[in-house]
Amino acid sequence: MATAAPATPIKNSKQALNPLDLFDVRGMLGEDERMVQDSVARFVDDRVLPIIQECFEQHRFPHDLIPEIASLGLLGSSIKGYDCAGLSSLAYGVICQELERGDSGIRSFVSVQSSLCMYPIYAFGSEEQKQKYLPRMARGELIGCFGLTEPHGGSDPANMKTHAKRQGKDWVINGAKMWITNGTIAGVCVCWAATDEGIRGFLIDKGTKGFDAREIENKFSLRASVTGALFFDNVVVPEENVLPGVVGLKGPLSCLTQARYGITWGVIGAAQACLAQMLDYTSTRILFGKPLAQTQAIQLRLADMSRRITTAQLLSLQLGQLKEQGRMTPSHVSLAKWNNCRMALDIARDARDMLGGAGISAEYVPVRHMLNLESVITYEGTETIHQLTIGRELTGFSAF
Ligand code: TGC
Ligand code: FAD
């Protein structure tokens, strides 16, 4: 027969450590960055967490949060000017982390708007395009989507079928895009299409003749996010809607580098949410006469979660510092996206298991994060694509 548990856990550290930030990564942030983190954390606690379970169950993106997300300066937060907040890379990181602590779908919304839509307009757009789109996008009045993936295979975008042909001063676009976040709620699509000159980016406004977006229903993942399929049937766009500053695959891939950087931080938030709930649950769930948290097997699993979160935090912190110094490379981002998504997905799956039967209930966060992370480890480059990117970096041979 098991003996009764001690009433209170024994504290071993003289100085209490934050179990979700053991190496005090927050302490490495500047004061402004900590203020940003705090305000996004409050927003997530007050406005996201109370509704997100229901949104997920109802397969509904909470549109009504957009004005508040915008007023917090979270849309295009790294852009200077054009009504954007001009925050640092680390601030963007903690924004993603806090949002994804709420739900990957909310972080996805901000990633797509900021890194995949506003970034290319800022980096490759004409001054007229920046003036026309960026301020409205920063205010959340205009939503963007990013069309790169196609139905026949997203991992190899160089082989895209969507094409644009010159017709006098206009371009005519034909093709289809698949799995597009914000697809049906977007007022503008940043669409990548093959041309005789190479891949180019086109800004296609909602309502343009021949452009259609349909929602993808029946998802088991990212249910609090909108995902669509896009169709382009002889869509005519004027030359002024082409992004003039880039030709070739490096255009869309540069956007992915920005978004993947944010994801490395975001998934830490999802993992922290799972660990926080497990620390609470295992200390109050009494089995065999003692709290689960007092068993060696559970402690090993909690310790392993903590080790993996900590290493992911340190990786993203260093990545952010390299980014600020202009030294971050696509391979750095691939390694961190691979490591951190794998870390978060493994933690969510393990947390779900530690809850026993309750682990399949939407009342607890791990299963929702777990299902979301199945998308996050797939989009923005699958785990295999990032592994092969590192393989290519190490060996010089492309194995794609
Ligand atoms: P490769 O020869 O490697 O490169 C072609 C050109 O691009 C440059 N480049 C990059 N530039 C910036 N950032 C990167 N990450 C870059 N990677 C490559 C490269 O230097 C070269 O430039 P240049 O000047 O020499 O022409 O191209 P490849 O055809 O061998 O492909 C490499 C591969 C497989 C890594 C690439 O195709 C890839 O990343 N595939 C995965 C596709 C992907 O991630 N799709 C994501 C779609 S968007 C999305 O999922 C949004 S989800 C959003 C949400 O909801 O949060
Ligand atoms: P495929 O490319 O067909 O890959 C299938 C499998 O083959 C994978 O396991 C892959 O790792 C593996 N594989 C591929 N190549 C190799 C190789 N050379 N060697 C070994 N294995 C290989 N895309 C956008 O453009 N915009 C968006 O906003 C967007 N949002 C998304 C939202 C959600 C919820 C999801 C699920 C996806 C989204 N995507 C978006 C698409 C996403 O980027 C793609 O799903 C992803 O890039 C993989 O492409 P695919 O689904 O066509 O899989």
What does this structure look like?
The chain has helices at 31-58, 66-71, 89-102, 104-124, 127-138, 250-284, 296-324, 330-354, 365-376, 383-395; strands spanning 80-81, 84-85, 144-147, 163-167, 170-181, 188-195, 198-205, 211-215, 227-238, 286-287, 290-291. Helix 3 runs antiparallel to helix 4. The strands form four sheets. A four-stranded antiparallel beta sheet has the order 4-5-9-8, with helices on one face. It has a three-stranded mixed beta sheet with strand order 3-6-7, with helices on one face. The chain has a two-stranded antiparallel sheet with strand order 1-2. The model is unreliable at 1-6 (pLDDT under 50). It is an alpha+beta fold. It is built from ten helices and eleven strands. The longest helix has 35 residues, at 250-284. It is elongated and about 80 Å long. The structure holds 3-thiaglutaryl-CoA and flavin-adenine dinucleotide. Residues 112, 146-149, 153-155, 179-181, 222, 227, 375, 378-380, 382, 384-385, 400 line the site of flavin-adenine dinucleotide.
Strands, helices and their partners?
Layout: H1 31-58, H2 66-71, E1 80-81, E2 84-85, H3 89-102, H4 104-124, H5 127-138, E3 144-147, E4 163-167, E5 170-181, E6 188-195, E7 198-205, E8 211-215, E9 227-238, H6 250-284, E10 286-287, E11 290-291, H7 296-324, H8 330-354, H9 365-376, H10 383-395
The structure holds 3-thiaglutaryl-CoA and flavin-adenine dinucleotide.
Flavin-adenine dinucleotide (FAD) binds next to strand 3, strand 5 and helix 10.
